[in-house]
Specification:
Rossmann fold, 2 domains, 13% strand
Length: 179
């Protein structure tokens, strides 16, 4: 029975020290990406790693998932596999046995995490709109000049090859060619 930790922060420069500090773990999986999706490299590796009888330790519900649907799906699939999951901040422990109160708490706390995520996105959009109105926000700085993209295409390179060579997306190449 392995004690497995899952740690997530939203960006590379954030510190993971406060999560799962002082808990004896056999293996820890750490993601430094947004929790808006379950398509996270270390989460997927952990899901592949855990076996029946293992216990996953997570600091808090919002570290595992930011959407209620993702949270419920992850907890249900893990417990169906015989893997327990413990959320330390909320003091919830799921083993797969039916417990109506824990299921209610998981749903409520997951709803709060989802609500918090939507409020963050709303405030971010408001801030960007205000900055644009003031002329302060110009968007992200281009990493590749449109002229460089056009030069590659003019030299006979395909849109896809140009995108790969210059390290940009295909839509960036298409947008540069339309401009």
């Amino acid at each position: 029975m392995a004690q497995v930790g899952y740690v997530r922060v939203s960006s590379v420069d954030q510190n993971t020290d406060r999560q799962l500090d002082g808990i004896a773990l056999d293996k820890v999986f750490t993601d430094k990406v947004s929790g808006a999706t379950t398509d996270r490299p270390q989460l997927l590796a952990m899901l592949d790693y855990v076996r029946e009888g293992d216990c996953i330790h997570v600091h808090s519900i919002d570290r595992l998932a930011r959407s209620l649907a993702d949270l419920l799906s992850l907890v249900e699939s893990l417990t169906a596999k015989g893997v327990a999951i413990r959320f330390h901040k909320e003091q919830l422990h799921f083993t797969g046995e039916h417990n109506a109160m824990q299921k209610l708490m998981l749903s409520m706390m997951g709803s709060f995490a989802e609500f918090e995520r939507s409020m963050i996105k709303e405030r971010q959009a408001e801030g960007i709109a205000k900055a644009k109105a003031k002329g302060v926000y110009k968007g992200r700085v281009k990493t590749v000049d449109d002229d460089a993209i056009r030069a590659e295409i003019a030299a006979g390179s395909s849109f896809r090859k140009t995108a790969e060579k210059l390290g940009v997306s295909l839509s960036t190449v298409q947008r540069a060619m339309r401009a």
